[in-house]
């Protein structure tokens, strides 16, 4: 399910190379095994909670970073009613960037983030796993 989130199944040219799928899968299995051996269950493994280290980008200059990802796009935050937003909100929103060639970074490692649904093994998860997790995996509900 997680690896399939990174592929566009409607366009074969957008499919990830098998070696990339294998690398992601192996690292994900290793990460989940590490969590389980430590006595924890994540509770929400999905592509939204998996990131990559981006070692290449972490060493890039600002100019190189903008050449790779493009300049940041932002817009001012305004309230619908026109009132001032106050000091508790940001003045601008910055759009998330896309990185189309991330799969070409052979040395990048997977990291699992967002442990908000994690629980101790033998304990109970606070919430049940949503049905769409199972439906997306191909099971009939």
Automatic annotation (TrEMBL):
Protein kinase domain span: 1-141
Classification via PROSITE patterns: PROTEIN_KINASE_DOM (PS50011)
Single GO term (MF): protein kinase activity
InterPro entries: Kinase-like_dom_sf, Prot_kinase_dom
Transmembrane intervals: none
Matching SUPFAM superfamilies: Protein kinase-like (PK-like)
Signal sequence range: none
Protein name: Protein kinase domain-containing protein
Source organism of this protein record: Letharia columbiana
């Amino acid at each position: 399910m997680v690896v399939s989130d990174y592929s566009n199944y409607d366009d074969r040219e957008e499919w990830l190379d098998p070696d990339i799928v294998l690398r992601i899968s192996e690292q994900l299995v290793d990460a989940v095994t590490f969590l389980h051996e430590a006595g924890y269950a994540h509770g929400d493994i999905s592509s939204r909670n998996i990131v990559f280290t981006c070692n290449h980008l972490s060493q890039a200059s600002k100019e190189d970073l903008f050449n790779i990802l493009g300049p940041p796009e932002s817009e001012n935050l305004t309230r619908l009613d026109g009132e001032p937003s106050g000091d508790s909100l940001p003045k601008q929103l910055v759009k998330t960037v896309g990185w189309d060639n991330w799969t070409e970074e052979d040395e990048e490692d997977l990291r699992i983030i967002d442990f908000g649904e994690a629980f101790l093994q033998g304990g109970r998860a606070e919430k049940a796993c949503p049905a769409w997790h199972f439906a997306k995996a191909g099971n009939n509900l």
